[in-house]
Write a structure and sequence with these properties.
The chain is mainly beta. The protein contains three helices and twelve strands. It has a single domain (about 5-220), classed as Beta Barrel (Porin), CATH 2.40.160.40. The chain is about 10% helix and about 60% strand. A twelve-stranded antiparallel beta barrel has the order 1-2-3-4-5-6-7-8-9-10-11-12. A hairpin with a 2-residue loop joins β2 and β3 (about 55-65). The relative contact order is 0.13.
Length: about 220
Amino acid sequence: MNALNKIKFIILMTLLAYLPTHSNAETKIDLSYYFDSRDFNTFAFFIQNPKLGDDFSLWGFSDFHSAQNNKNKQFQIDRTFSEYRLSHSKLSDWTGIKGLGLQIEYDYSTPSNSQVWRAGLTYQLPASKRLKAQLRLFPAQNTRDEQVSLGYFYKITDEINITGFADYNLREDKKNQWVIEPQLNYKLAKDIGLIVEYRYNGFERDNPNLDGSGWAIGIKWKVL
């Protein structure tokens, strides 16, 4: 997928979030820009709509990275990763298990042009008003791998919170891999925030041309 098609894909997902007119106010869009300690930059697009209608919700992001360890090309897009999820919460009512849901996930990365489809269960863990956590289990995908994932949000104050995820990838005939990204968010103004993020990627760590861990600092703009 070239850069133009990538932009078209983002526009498509944005329009999808707007389809049900009654849920437009629920759509959230953020734009972020990070400087990574491994001498590359990241432009990130995030979209979320928890009320698409008929118990469906949308969540997704696209990251546009420059090449690692190349200060001269920090502002040039070299690789991308996108992840979009369509969730359905009605399973909770059908089973009587509060917080249980279904989810389909689509991942796409370049320059490898790798596409992954996953389907499985989500479970909103019982937590406090300050803490939210969701466990995701994907036994079905278009590869032989499986994934278990934990996402979380912890509110420290009205201005400070911690968000993040930990993905554990179960790979057939290959080494299992972690991908972990905790993020500290600080609200500078109404729609502007400061971000400090730790990034660990086991797939990158095992790539001789990439460094698998680093720190990033960035700025976030809440568009909607």
